[in-house]
Amino acid sequence: MRFEVLGGDVVRYIHHNRKLWVAVMLAGFLLIISVSSATASEPPNIQAAPNPQGVANETCLSCHGSPGMQTTLPSGEILYLTVDPQVYEQSIHGQQGYACVQCHVDIREYPHRPLEAETRRDVSLLYYKNCARCHQDKYDATLDSVHQAALEAGNEEAALCVDCHGYHDVRDPNESLTSVPQTCERCHSQIFAEYSQSVHGSALIGEGNPDVPTCIDCHGVHNVSGPSETGFHLFSPQLCAECHADQELMGKYGISTNVFNSYVSDFHGTTVIFEQQFEGQETNKPVCIDCHGVHIMKMVDDAESQVIRENLLVTCQRCHPDASSNFTDSWLGHYEPDLNRFPAVYLVDLFYRIFIPAVLGFMVLFVFGDATRRLINRRRERNDE
Q1: What integer pLDDT is reported at residue 137 of this predicted model?
Q2: What does DSSP say about strands 78-80 and 70-72: parallel, antiparallel, or unpaired?
Q3: Single pTM value for the model
């Protein structure tokens, strides 16, 4: 009964104060919209992931910050458990305030449960998938990489997230480009040795030049691909063109940007571009890396270059074993002929550029004039009749 009285009073109050009630409702509605808009306009905060276990880093580091912590795995290997607090704080995760337990999600209490790892490699295999908790897109990209394919084929030494980025000392990958080939060197030491002596590697590692390609520019970052994959060799000219067709970049070093266009205009390039239209197609025609080398590209005037005039015949004989000493004389390089470079070819080309349009133009004028003369003669004959 009391509720009915109160309900009636509320109804009468709203009825007599209708304007006030509408104002209150409108203000509430506007408040909801403003809060929703403010929330929607804020960028997604990926730097403050929740800490589900609620365990502070200080708690973990009270033990793991002590020097000399280690354990012996069943394999007999030593697993070091000490984490340098300063190293972690300077890492990108430490700078963004991530907690230890956001990666070590299986550690909830002390003493910790036994570590399910026989070897040190097992530890990496046990924890690397936790990266997907924050970096799902990057992790998904690795599933299409040659590293993942090798891992699924049984090679447990194939590169994992932690092998490239580290564990507690993860750095911003954009800090230093020189760290990229040095990271790949851990597994690909022979290739790194070749790259470091190449025109690209010597400029990056020796001079710190950021304009040259690193491993990831050609092979990809997380979805790493390589020559074992169908299409990598066939589409490799486009990788080279990303730099060598860039007029602004090549202009800094006086390099012609006609490299790619001249390649796709000749027999080799035209065939390769045609074959790229068919999925799963491979080619036996030479692409850039077949002539210039894969990781050990040299300057075109270097004595060790595969395309220098003295070495070019040997390079061509890989595909043309019967090529004689004059075989390479027809190769003009990737430069347009001019008066300074191949003047005879330039003058012949210029002659035909003028001669052919002139002949065709004269023929058009001749045919037009002849047709006009015939029409005029026919009209005169009709008038005479």
Answers
A1: 94
A2: antiparallel
A3: 0.71
